[in-house]
Write a structure and sequence with these properties.
single chain; alpha+beta; five-stranded mixed sheet; 21 helices; elongated
């Protein structure tokens, strides 16, 4: 019978139309500030005066690549001074910090953006004022020659995630009326800051300022600054984290010119404005904001854009110096293998050794960012307990690693090596950015092992404990039915009768022995080798060695609920479930004993599972 679709209700319609809270907030900002009429469109460059003062767009880009847009976010306008931080970062990466810093300062000037004044060394105060930006263009022109502008335009396109064009009319208007910038250019030439042809350098600068962007573009560009140089939409590393950190520093102190102090005091987000009506703000490790509204205040900043930034910062308390990260939240679980062993089912001799030496393997599961303060807290937490032989750091919930955190990690690992402690990393892929950051400092250390799965890491550490304390793990060893925990307590006669019903099966490495969903028609007793039990999604439930049973749930349920695969060549006794039932009928005492053993095994597994849950919920 065909089922009818669920009825469409008001709740269903409202759910489909619902918006994320952040988008709703941006819509409120748009509605609140659209009536704002203060300010004036820039007209000292005649072509800019043609902008429609009614245009207003707000865009916000998150570091996972999502972009919110409200209003006129696709209306193109010229980037103007918002190009400065990106060209500064480009110059730092292209020419090196020493070359750039030798001619451009990093101090705020306190003057308007187009001030014809240099610092005490006859250098521009910083790269955010016109003098510093022209100097940056000059440095790149000296290195790239006639290709300098295309080099800059291509780089800005990588920040935006698309190819950017030039407004030729604005370029021509800017060039025709740019005498103040020419005066700055020749002042720089007189003081040897620019060593190239001044008109050629200024042509690069005028074209750079006339590059067309949208509010959406500037949000993505700002998010790239906030994301340590990685464009969150394209995933490309546009410039190095070093260049980004230095650029954001100068934006913080000087990005808003003679309004910079007030800005950072009240808003607290590194930002840059342009006389074309745009403002971009980059909150490190959080988001990028771009807005467009042509009417400017007396400082040359967009009136509506300023209000949007102020509202966003105040409403969500985003001031960059008001951080509440607590290092104590970086550890989600801290335990030893006595509380949470691996999923491998151990034989009695191994269990005895591990029970005596469970404190020799410490597991610390981390979450969030590996920052300096978080790593310091973890190292002190580790030192507060007796020294183990192995420490496993599980990083599967770590979202980022700072260079400072990675360096402190390396120093902590070095100290552990000197103390004879082996470090095991889990939950991190060698192809990941976090691995690259950590391995930069740790690749010379010899006491580090890594396994992607935490259970594999714990299992390996357990094996080492067994070896160190006189045990052995012989995967080629052959066991008999009498050694099976499921058959404990059966008499020799009962074991012999059961053995007569069994067939010995041989399996090759990676061969699937049991498949989820199949009929549960037999029971297996592992005779030699290793097998593992997994869910259909690949999650490993258990690793079994010789002397263990599998498929035993056939005694309770008709369908297989997990896969069983051979890790290596393995042999097993297989008994048909119907023959096994006849054996139980013939030997009722043995049948009762087997079910009691099964109940005990399941209870032990449940205890372990509950312990794992308790570890993750106790904090």
């Amino acid at each position: 019978m065909k089922r009818s679709p669920p009825p469409v209700t008001a709740s269903t319609v409202n759910w489909a139309r619902s918006q994320p809270p952040l988008l709703r907030f941006l819509h409120r900002c748009y509605a609140d500030f659209l009536p704002e009429v203060a300010g004036a469109v820039a007209d000292y460059i005649p072509e800019l005066g043609k902008a429609d003062p009614a245009h207003f767009g707000i865009s916000l880009a998150t570091l996972d690549g999502h972009v919110y847009e409200v209003g006129d976010t696709r209306v193109p306008f010229t980037i103007q001074s918002m190009s400065k931080p990106f060209v500064f970062a480009l110059a730092l990466d292209t020419l090196g910090a020493e070359r750039v810093e030798s001619v451009i300062g990093v101090e705020p000037s306190g003057d308007p953006f187009n001030s014809i004044r240099l610092n005490a060394d006859n250098h521009p105060f910083n790269a955010m004022v016109n003098a510093g930006a022209i100097a940056c263009s000059g440095l790149l022109h000296a290195d790239k020659g006639d290709g300098a502008f295309d080099y800059i335009r291509h780089a800005l396109g990588r920040f935006a995630g698309r190819e950017l064009d030039v407004d030729e009319a604005v370029y021509a208007s800017e060039s025709a009326t740019g005498d103040r910038n020419r005066a700055i250019g020749y002042l720089l030439r007189t003081n040897s800051v620019i060593t190239e042809n001044v008109p050629a350098v200024l042509d690069v600068y005028f074209r750079q300022c006339a590059i067309l962007v949208t509010a959406r573009d500037t949000a993505v560009m700002a998010a790239t600054l906030a994301n340590r140089g990685i464009n969150p939409v394209t995933g490309e590393q546009v410039v190095t984290p070093y260049a980004i950190a230095r650029t954001l520093s100068v934006m913080t102190s000087s990005g808003m010119y003679d309004f910079a102090g007030e800005w950072i005091y009240r808003v607290g987000i590194p930002a840059k404005s342009g006389v074309g009506g745009g403002i971009l703000a980059a909150l490190p490790a959080r988001l990028g904001l771009g807005s467009y509204s042509p009417k400017l205040d007396k400082h040359g900043n967009s009136v509506r854009g300023i209000k949007v930034c102020e509202a966003l910062s105040a409403h969500y308390d985003l001031h960059m110096l008001n951080r509440s990260d607590d290092a104590r939240h970086s550890i989600i679980a801290d335990y030893n293998i006595g509380k949470n062993p691996s999923r491998r089912l151990r034989r009695p001799q191994e269990q005895e050794i591990l029970a005596k030496h469970f404190q020799e393997v410490r597991v610390i599961e981390l979450v969030g960012t590996l920052s300096l303060s978080n790593v310091d807290y973890v190292s002190r937490r580790l030192a507060g307990s007796p020294r183990p032989e192995f420490v496993i750091f599980d990083l599967r919930r770590v979202t980022a690693t700072t260079r400072a955190g990675a360096r402190l990690v390396a120093e902590a690992f070095q100290e552990l090596a000197e103390l004879g402690v082996t470090v095991i990393l889990s939950g991190i892929k060698r192809t990941s950015r976090e691995w690259t950051t950590i391995s930069e400092w740790t690749n010379r250390l010899g006491n580090i092992r890594d396994f992607y799965l935490l259970d594999t890491a714990i299992e390996w550490a357990e094996d080492q404990i067994v070896y160190r304390y006189g045990g052995s793990i012989d995967f080629l060893e052959t066991t008999e039915l009498a050694e099976q925990p499921l058959l404990a307590g059966l008499s020799e006669v009962e074991i012999a009768d059961l053995a007569s019903l069994c067939a010995v099966r041989t399996y090759q490495p990676n061969e699937k022995i049991i498949a989820t969903g199949n009929e549960a028609t037999s029971l297996f007793f592992l005779r030699s080798g290793v097998v593992h039990v997994t869910l259909p999604d690949g999650i490993r439930l258990a690793t079994l060695t010789a002397g263990m049973a599998f498929g035993e749930m056939a005694l309770l349920e008709p369908k297989r609920s997990a896969d069983v695969l051979a890790d290596m060549s393995a042999t097993a006794y297989e008994v048909d479930i119907r023959d096994f039932e006849r054996f139980r009928d013939h030997h009722p005492r043995a049948g009762e004993r087997i079910m009691r053993n099964l109940a005990q095994i399941l209870a032990e597994r449940l205890i372990v599972a509950n312990a794992k849950v308790d570890l993750l919920t106790s904090g």
